[in-house]
Amino acid sequence: METLRKNILAGKISPVYFFYGPESFLKEECAGMIRTALFTSENDAACNTHIFYGTDFTLGELISKASEYPMFTSKQLIIVRQFDKIKKPATKELQKKHDEKFSNYLKSPAEFTVLVCDADPVEKKDLEKNSFSALQKYRHDFPIIKAPDTFASNRAKAAGWQFEPDALKAFTTYIQPSAREICHEIEKIIMYASARCTEKRITAMDVYDCVGISRTYNVFELEKALAERNLRLCSGISLMIMDQEGQKEGLGNIIRFLTTFYLRLWKLSLPDVRKLPQAEIAKILGMFGKQEYFVKNYVTYSRSFSLQDSEHAITALRETDAALKGLLPYPDEKYLLLRLMQQLLG
User: Fold this and answer.
1) Interatomic CA distance for residues 114 and 17, integer angstroms
2) Which residues in the chain show pLDDT less than 50?
3) What's the number of CA atoms in the CB half-sphere (13 Å) around residue 149?
4) N or C: which end of the chain has fewer CB within 10 A?
5) The CATH number of the domain covering residues in 2-141
């Protein structure tokens, strides 16, 4: 994806792009970059950018559009969203002709058209069919963000900013792991922090203020209270987090965070792991980049929990998650939460 962005910024525009994957925000962003690279004015861009949806066009109709000359400019941009749902013609014979027409076009695309085919994930067998197989050499993947902390850190760095370690931890704990959410929140935080300082460093306080996290009642205070085995404080902090975020969503976030927390404690309960250098421990715990800063916290916390404590906690978290998803009966979210805290510290 970075190579794609660099090429677009350098003006190296391909006649065809196949954007494939679930991250719609990043696909839209790259399409916008292509639009900016193609046209010298907003007026030209508005007149010669055409957005279609696969449900409205057959392949044959799409190629007819791509073969039409643009108005008053040397280029036109055609973006086909939901290409995975491209309209099928009435008969198989006609579909075959459309596939051939599409395949022939891709072998020799119109020099005045840039065609962007945007598709969500499909079955592997469908990717091998004519319309998709012909596009493979133009394919760029946009998978789900699997490392939100790395993505957020790189995104801030691209804007000339840097997350402090505790700020990045707070940000990735409370923000949904989608590119759209991460990018919008970073933009908001940078606007806020710009008025505060000139150092271009995002602090935990910036995250708390912009994302709406209480500085007293958050998951970092919760993990400290768990290490102190303070049931009353754990219950109080958890209830406050739920009130801040909404009952079901707040409990879901607590479960996700604590599952990661106890899995890391479980790994640290193995004697051979604790003897390793901090960098090696970080890899085993799945903590990369600036997250390595917090390894010492987990090593300290692990002294308060035995292997059995961690295994018991993971089981309780799985049961609570199953209940929250409707697989097990429960009266309400607060009951689930308070029962969970008792199970974790019982």
Assistant:
1) 8
2) none
3) 16
4) C
5) 3.40.50.300
